[in-house]
């Protein structure tokens, strides 16, 4: 057997599972913290600003280093990234839409950056890890995806604030509105007065700024991220691009 034949045979096994996403469709990457209920033990409840800032720095790093990234949405320990590969006819896909590379590299990037940032404030914490998944969506479903995640963030926020203020047995059977009423009447906490990032998460977007007389841009947190159901164009502008057909 020739050496090349042997190598080619080994490559065939590998290539049989080398799956790629369809090109020229919106791609969603979702990166989640693994076992973060254990990792966050001992941190401030319901919201730890140091943890949140570390996740925001991770989001910015991912946005800067993932080709085709258009917007990042963060809530809890979850990061959702919209990637486009159809801006122009010549636009390339990140890792040629190779799913294994996209998810392994994005999870590795998130893990490395997050641990780099969090260690300065929590040096005794074990290493955090992240997993990742990737898929394509029809154009018309992209905003619906982010709306779904934002609704999940809102539901979790109400639950987390309630759990931080009441024992579990007092919360059983109560829906979101009832929990908000209980917080207001018994603790004087108006959930609607919490910062946007605590109520519904935030997006990391590319924002313009002036340095001297030069206009530049950087990825940063949009602390006024809207409710997506009320402002669908906030996400849609990154989906429906002025692209070459």
UniProtKB/TrEMBL annotation:
InterPro entries: tRNAHis_GuaTrfase_cat, tRNAHis_GuaTrfase_Thg1, tRNAHis_GuaTrfase_Thg1_sf. The keyword Nucleotidyltransferase applies. The keyword Disulfide bond does not apply. It comes from the Bacteria. GO terms for biological process: tRNA modification. Keywords: Nucleotidyltransferase, Transferase. One of its GO terms (molecular function) is tRNA guanylyltransferase activity. This is Guanylyltransferase.
């Amino acid at each position: 057997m020739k050496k090349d034949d042997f190598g080619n045979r080994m490559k065939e096994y590998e290539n049989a599972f080398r799956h790629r996403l369809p090109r020229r469709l919106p791609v969603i990457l979702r990166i989640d913290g693994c076992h973060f209920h254990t990792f966050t033990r001992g941190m401030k409840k319901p919201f730890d600003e140091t943890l949140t800032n570390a996740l925001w720095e991770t989001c910015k790093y991912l946005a800067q280093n993932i080709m085709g990234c258009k917007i990042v949405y963060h809530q809890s320990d979850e990061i959702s990234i919209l990637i486009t590969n159809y801006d122009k006819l010549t636009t390339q896909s990140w890792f040629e839409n190779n799913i294994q590379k996209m998810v392994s590299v994005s999870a590795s990037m998130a893990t490395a950056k997050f641990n780099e940032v969090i260690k300065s404030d929590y040096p005794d914490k074990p290493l955090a890890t992240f997993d990742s998944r990737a898929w394509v969506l029809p154009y018309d479903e992209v905003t619906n995806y982010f709306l779904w995640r934002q609704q999940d963030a809102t539901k979790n926020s109400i639950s987390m604030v309630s759990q931080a203020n009441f024992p579990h047995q007092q919360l059983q059977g109560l829906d979101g509105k009832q929990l908000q009423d209980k917080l207001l009447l018994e603790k004087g906490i108006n959930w609607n007065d919490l910062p946007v990032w605590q109520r519904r998460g935030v997006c990391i977007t590319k924002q313009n700024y002036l340095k001297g007389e030069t206009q530049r841009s950087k990825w940063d947190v949009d602390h006024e991220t809207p409710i997506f159901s009320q402002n669908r164009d906030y996400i849609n502008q990154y989906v429906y691009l002025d692209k070459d057909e």
